[in-house]
Design goal:
binds pyridoxal-5'-phosphate, 10 strands, 6-stranded mixed sheet
Length: about 350
């Protein structure tokens, strides 16, 4: 089963422990937190040594601003955290074939980990997905299927296939968030087992934001940290249904009319886990910030000029981070992320720099 009979999604609930002495002696990757992860036998762990991405100080944005370099994963985005966990679980279940639908990066990550695990996969993407991501998915050996029409049409095609094939969906499958939650474990360990004050993260479907929230909750309930950071959620103004719901500009999500945005990776008009995302922001006394297309482009350029090659979607988060720092100048410890590599979107980046 990949969803409840009512159509709702499942969550995984497990106990988490953090034996710090043991953890610190293990290799620097996301699997060092195994007492806080779903139980996977060693032989079934599908890992490329991913995780423990560098956390770098970015002081031109503020005294205590740190950015986690999540674009430095094997497939070029933090989605590898989710894929490593989810495909390990799938291997343990003895499943030989899966289907996934994606607008690009999740499909690339699932294709990469399926290749490493020797599992067959069909990746369904909208016809107009960036070339770089298509090439990546295909070259990993996945069966790439281009679906005409909207992102929703692609999901419907995947639901159909999921009647007969295991659905390795990054939004429905709860094991994906069990992987992305390691973002928070690493940040906390990198800060000497202290929680930051503020998290500035992108949100479309919320795979990073919800994973991060889950991770900090685990650390809190295990007594490792004393507070959960405030979550500042960033959306592109052209596709900001959750920001508008949060700020009561619309009453229901269907009332939001999305427009095109250069931040293609977070252009999700009707995210599955929307109530959980709104609750995470509300429960941490956080807020939503939206960014305009020109602000995304300015942030993309300034980030590249400092030597970091990120994709346009990731620049939306940095634009939001800049806006937040301008609004609330203080010495809080602020954490954000470079979510995806620019190597996936060179054509788009080229056209931006030509303007
Ligand atoms: C997936 C992704 C995000 C976040 O998207 P969600 O839909 O919230 O999971 C942000 N940046 C990049 C580059 C991504 O691939």
């Amino acid at each position: 089963m990949w969803c409840c009979d009512c159509g709702g999604y499942f969550d995984v609930v497990i106990d988490t422990k953090f034996p710090i002495d043991k953890i610190s002696k293990r290799p620097p990757n996301m699997w060092r937190y195994r007492e806080a992860l779903p139980q996977i036998e060693n032989k079934n762990i599908v890992s490329m040594g991913e995780g423990f991405t560098p956390l770098i100080k970015f002081d031109d944005l503020g005294k205590n601003v740190f950015i986690k370099q999540e674009h430095l994963f094997p497939s070029g985005s933090y989605k590898d955290r989710g894929a490593s966990m989810m495909i390990s679980k799938i291997k343990q279940l003895g499943i030989k074939k899966v289907v996934e639908d994606s607008s690009g990066n999740a499909g690339s990550a699932v294709a990469a980990y399926c290749a490493w695990a020797n599992i067959n996969c069909d990746i369904l993407v909208p016809e107009n997905t960036s070339k770089g991501k298509l090439v990546q998915i295909k070259s990993y050996g996945a069966n790439l299927r281009l679906i005409p029409g909207s992102r929703e049409k692609t999901s419907l095609a995947a639901f159909k296939e999921a009647e007969n094939t295991y659905y390795a969906s990054h939004s429905y499958n709860p094991y994906f968030l069990q992987g992305t939650k390691t973002f928070s474990y690493e940040v906390t360990e990198q800060l000497n087992w202290k929680a930051p004050d503020i998290l500035v993260l992108p949100v479309g479907n919320g795979t990073l934001l919800l994973g991060a929230y889950l991770g900090f909750n685990d650390l809190y309930s295990s007594g490792i940290i004393r507070k959960i950071p405030k979550i500042i959620a960033i959306q592109s103004k052209n596709c900001a249904p959750l920001a508008d719901l949060f700020n009561k500009k619309i009453l229901k999500i269907e009332d939001f009319k999305p427009q095109n945005t250069i931040a293609e990776g977070i252009a999700i008009a009707n995210p599955l886990r929307q109530q959980a995302i709104l609750a995470a922001v509300r429960n941490t006394a956080g807020m939503f910030i939206t960014v305009e297309e020109d602000e995304i482009i300015t942030s993309l350029k300034s980030t590249h000029k400092k030597g970091f090659f990120i994709e346009p979607t990731s620049a939306a988060t940095i634009a939001g981070l800049k806006k937040y720092m301008k609004l609330f100048q203080n010495n809080d410890m602020v954490i954000s992320a470079f979510t995806g590599s620019g190597l996936k979107a060179t054509a788009k980046i080229d056209s931006i720099f030509k303007e």
